[in-house]
Amino acid sequence: MMELIIEFAYTGSVNVTESNARRLFMAADYLNIVELVQICCNFFEKTLCPDNCISIWQFTKTYHTPELHLKAFHYVLSHFEEVVFSEEFLQLSAQDVSDIISSDDLNVRQEAAVFEAIIRWITHDPQEREGYADLLLPKVRLSMMPTEYIQSHVLSNKLVTDNLRCQAMVSEVIECIDRILGRPRLPSAILLAIGGWSSSMDLTNVIEAFDVRANHWMNITNLSEVPRAYHGAAYLGGYVYCVGGIDQVFKPTNSVRRFDLSAQTWQEVAPMHYRRGYVSVTVLNWCIYAMGGYDGRTHLSSAEFYQPETNQWLQIAPMHEQRSDASCTALNGKIYICGGYDGNERLQTAECYNQETNQWTLISPMSSQRSGLGVIAYNNHVYAVGGSDGTGCLQTAEVYNPHTNTWHNVSSMMTPRCSFGIEVVEDRLFVVGGFSRFNATSNVEYYDTEKNEWSQACDMDVSRHALSCCVLSGLPNMA
Keywords of this protein's UniProt record, alphabetized (predicted)? Predict the structure, then answer.
């Protein structure tokens, strides 16, 4: 270690590896070589994984590295369902397990994962650890579990049946489960539904946020924001961007505004080269792409992208088709845009953009004509959902495989809809609002690719169509 430190003193560089990182950190800390301590911390942060995050968290308790300590702990919370299967998890103290599973930030899709983690930890050393059931089981948010799971897995577990206090606690939850307002874990991501036409045919600036863990919408409208519809929304670098659309005088606009999530303020950024109502928007490689749309006279084939660091829009190659009211997504470094309206008919065609060559390529057409559809990357495929074929709203959905250049049908939505929001949150595909049959709807449903089925989620408070959605994650102020 001294050799490495002396080498660092002369050259300003050091070769940090997994085998020497901790000893080097300890030596640098002992000798108060701040820059080398930081180099080691950066190395630990880059190499965080489910198999080592707990030991890094524990290791940094002994040394004054609060930033790394916090990042390691957040990594444990964020990747909990993988971390519990590591050897390190089994070596934790009861208090450490308690600190982890008590956190609102613990990222678990089902609360059952917390119960099963406790069982795994205790059964690793039952003689020493069974006495900690009293400490740990009350930290499981039983009221967030299905009653059937509690009865079939929790009540029948030996740790519960052998512990009168735990038995009483579980029984009380089952008796009161309809009345208990459980405190859900914080979600890892939040779905925003922005703007649109309300059911009273008014342009709206309503923003609602969906907490997938609580299955609950909250109105977070900022009254200073202008209403818009048929726009695009994107989340990038801590900002929510609203791109183009129809403005309050009912004309297509090229304006772009962004919402600063920490300051909670809106600001105007550089406008697009073209006015684009009915625009298609996605994010690729830290840039926002806007394609097609309607400028008030023409259905557009042009496309452009925005670089936040330069506050500039740059044009790219035009698409093969004029497309307004289409939808797009990014997958594996490419952009896919499907359907839309060219001024004469609803389109069945789809095409793909390669950023490296600045070229669009037509891909296999969908099985249906679709405008006002939703397109999203999900499970390494491109999904095209709903829309209108010119005779009415569709409830069908189809999926594109980029490797075989083929489409195939999947289960249809429960509700036909067009001009709706679409996003993927916590491995489920959500469709939000839209126009259905005769009016705007507040209905929300989600698709599970493993089950190939749609299920109802909580409705929005406001019925609307021509809205746009985006997903926020990694927010420091999620609570």
Answer: Kelch repeat, Repeat
Which token pair is 219?
Answer: 């109105």
Which bin fits 389, alpha (ψ -120 to 50), beta or left (φ > 0)? Answer: alpha
Topology (CATH level 3) of domain 2-136: 1.25.40
Joined together, the tokens standing for residue 285 give 């490689």
pLDDT tens track for 384-402: 999 999 999 999 999 999 9
SS (H, E, C) 66-112: HHHHHHHHHHHHHCHHHHCCCHHHHCCCHHHHHHHHHCCCCCCCCCH
The two three-digit tokens of residue 39, written as one number: 């180099």
Measured CA angle at 47 (ends 45, 52), to 5 deg: 100
CA–CA gap between residue 234 and residue 236 (Å, rounded): 6
Specify which residues 473 forms β-bridges with: 189
- At position 289, the amino acid (one-letter code) is Y
Q: What is the pLDDT of residue 155?
A: 77
pLDDT tier for residue 184 given thresholds of 50, 70 and 90:
confident
Class of domain 189-473: mainly beta
User: What is the residue whose two structure tokens read 């909250």?
Assistant: 218
| Cβ atoms of 257 and 225 closer than 8 Å | yes
Residue 213 is predicted with a pLDDT of 86
Query: In the structure encoding, which two tokens stand for residue 410, read together?
Result: 């999947």
CA distance 469 to 412: 21
User: Which element (helix H / strand E) includes 34?
Assistant: helix 34-46
Domain ranges of the chain: 2-136, 189-473
Is 305 in contact with 335 (CB distance < 8 Å)? no
Question: If you compute the radius of gyration of the chain from its CA atoms, what whole number of angstroms results?
Answer: 26
- Tokens 């307002």 -> residue: 181
As separate numbers, helices (DSSP H) first and strands (DSSP E) second, the chain gives 14, 27
Cα 315 to Cα 18, 244, 302, distances in angstroms: 45, 15, 8
